[in-house]
Amino acid sequence: MDFDLTEDQRLLTESVGRLLGDTYGFEQRKQLLKTPTGWSEALWAQYAELGLLGLPFSEDHGGFGGSAVDVMLLMQDFGKHLVLEPYLSTVVLGGTALRLAGSADQQDEILPGIAAGERRLAFAHYERQSRYDMTDVLTTARANAGGFVLEGAKATVLHGDSADTLIVSARTAGGRDDEAGLSLFLVDANTAGIARRGYTLRDGSRAAELSLSGVQVPREALLGQQDNALPIIRRVVEAGIAAGAAEVVGAMEAMQAMTLEYLKTRVQFGKAIGENQALQHRAAEMMIALEQGRSMAMLAAMMVDEPNDAERARNISMAKVGVGQAGRFVSQNAVQLHGGIGMTEEYAVGHYFRRVMVFEHLYGDTAYHLDLLADQVA
Amino acid sequence: MDLRFTPEEVAFREEVRTFIAENLPRETRERMRLGYRPKKQEIIDWMRILNRKGWAAFNWPQEYGGTGWSAIQRMIFLEENLAAPAPELLSFNITMIGPVLIQFGTQAQKDHFLPRAKNLDDWWCQGFSEPGAGSDLASLRTRAEKDGDHYVVNGQKIWTSTAHNADWCFCLVRTNPNAAKRQEGISFLLIDMKTPGVEVRPIISIDGSHHLNEVFFTDVRVPVENLVGEEHKGWSVAKYLLGNERTGIARLGSSKAAIRRSKEVAKEVRMKGRPLIEDQAFRTRVAQLEVDAKALEITQLRVVSAYAKAGGNKPDPVSSVLKVKGTELLQNSSELLMDVGGPQAMAVWQAELAAMANEPEIGPEWAPQMAPAYLMLRAASIYGGTNEIQKNILNKAVLGL
Hints:
The complex is a heterodimer of chains A (378) and B (401). Chain A is of the alpha+beta class. Chain A has helices at 7-23, 26-34, 41-50, 68-81, 87-101, 104-115, 230-265, 277-303, 309-338, 349-360, 366-375, and strands spanning 121-124, 140-144, 147-158, 165-171, 182-188, 194-200, 206-217, 222-223, 267-268, 271-272. Chain A has three domains: 7-119, Butyryl-Coa Dehydrogenase, subunit A, domain 1 (Orthogonal Bundle), CATH 1.10.540; 122-227, Butyryl-CoA Dehydrogenase, subunit A, domain 2 (Beta Barrel), CATH 2.40.110; 231-375, Butyryl-CoA Dehydrogenase, subunit A, domain 3 (Up-down Bundle), CATH 1.20.140. In chain A, α9 (309-338) runs antiparallel to α10. Chain A is globular. Chain A starts with 6 loop residues before the first helix and ends with a helix. In chain B, α10 (319-341) runs antiparallel to α12 (370-376). Chain B has a four-stranded mixed β-sheet. A four-stranded antiparallel β-sheet of chain B has the order 2-3-7-6, with no helix packed on it. Helices cover 45% and strands 15% of the residues of chain B. By secondary structure, chain B is α+β, with helices and mostly antiparallel strands. Chain B is globular. Chain B is built from 13 helices and ten strands. Chain B has helices spanning 7-23, 26-33, 40-53, 71-83, 91-104, 107-118, 234-243, 252-266, 280-309, 319-341, 351-356, 370-376, 387-399, and strands at residues 124-127, 143-147, 150-158, 168-174, 186-192, 198-204, 210-223, 227-228, 270-271, 274-275. The chains are: A alpha+beta (378), B alpha+beta (401). Chains A and B meet through α7, α8, α9 and α11 of A and α9, α10 and α13 of B.
């Protein structure tokens, strides 16, 4: 048990902090939001230079050989600055799928490209009707002489509009909700028959809906075992939860700091509003929630590589609940303690609020994971 | 950063768990599992078993008969002891007066009191709160006037836990009522409870138990050698005591035991024709408490580990987070357990009295202590600095408001 940063981790957070401090001011970010992709190619190249895009990959694949804790530290910084680049979808979701299920050839082909900043992935799994159910997949993949033909549609594909490679789940066997019969495919995003409709999520980040109509992919597009992709899909989602949880911690830190500053400077009735005990206690409760949430993000990082499936899933669910509740408490109170200014688009706190809100509704919300945990009470 | 326990820490936990399993008297464990509080003699017996093992003064330096354990080891030990469930070490002796004497005591005080404290030859109680001095402790008024080689003490203490069991009381008294600041005229005295003029009156709390007391001092003569630290400087002794290491303040093992017990009993009682344990609303409540317990467990590790890194002598204000969340969890888990019991938990049933009259039990054996535990734990957010005071501490010491 050791909560101190290693020398490498300290250097990592310092260099990331410097870069984002220079490039990710609130106004700078607002300009990025107005660009067509909604994020910065130039910054993506700088992330590659700093080694961030290969952080969790092995050195053979141009990576850093970093741990889940390294990714947690990076995501905390990303959360603090509301970073818009497709890191989660490319490095965390796409990278995890490839690391766990990819053949040597697939890994050699794609991972170094990610690390170098040349390739961007998106994880196209959930569908309009599926909500949080991982087995509710209606998209099909029919084997033919040329490989497989994909038919169906995918929803909430994070950064699906700008990715060059899609990881698409589809049924190769079984029916809706069956655990068996799912497969994953690595698909060039420009393959004929794929229509992508990009849109903006409530926090300003980008996503896409995909429609897949007669999409012919070769046999080698299969990622992992045919009919048995669910364990991999679970791991990918768990990795997304762990990384997103850390991002929420960063966002909570930022909201807490802004709120404290506001409490000390905003004057009403002739004194700083932070002199009122009702507000002081609310601030203390925010701090308590933040620290409990931080502990749960650490739990997720600690457990995301745990080999025991049940143990890992259970702890990740606990983390999702804990971070979800902390995030909601901190962000709602951050707006409340700011008063009217906290309601405005011009002020940063609402942007953090929406980042936390969006993450809570990805990969199973608080009620969903609490229910999963409740199912296991015995 | 490495968030896993080391193999040594895992092995240590196993060693502690095994020792407790093999040495805790069976009857004590069984009564405590049913929610009964340990009897005085059970506490004494268990402390002496631990002392023979060398573990009673778990947080003292080795030169005074302590263990020399790391902060993580101390936390593991306390958690295992609570989760067993075994009687808690008497905090007045082990985490309060012991460290205070080690820091401020004379050689004679150390030689005499420390070995007796860790073997529970003396049962200590804490004379701090007064009717007019609760959260605002510095407004205490109990007076001690010098008369030759004695102090003469007059006044009243209240909420004095286990004073009726106690042999000695460490007391804050006012030695200089004219000091410029209220904190400056206070001294820290050790008072023998058998001294003429000491009177203990019981306070029965809402759980029906006698745990709290009022203690009256009328011309109580205390030898000057029982002063700890400098005269009039007792406030800094008290601050040291209150801010001293707060490992275990969250009492997480106790909450975990109540959650575990709730699940056990929920298999025996029913809800809409099925065992309660199968009811999703109940299970969701359990799941929520288990999430809260997990978050607290990691936060506690972080605080303990930061404390150890800081050299282990400066109280960390973040431990106020542990106090607040720990007591909330204690309260919520005791509430869950009582709710599982339902109407059966509402009966007043005093096993000891019934045994004397050879009466049959009212209700199942798991029921009688559920409501008392819930009622008693309403105090958890009041004692040791109310949770509102903890939030004030966080504001002042951490948030700068």
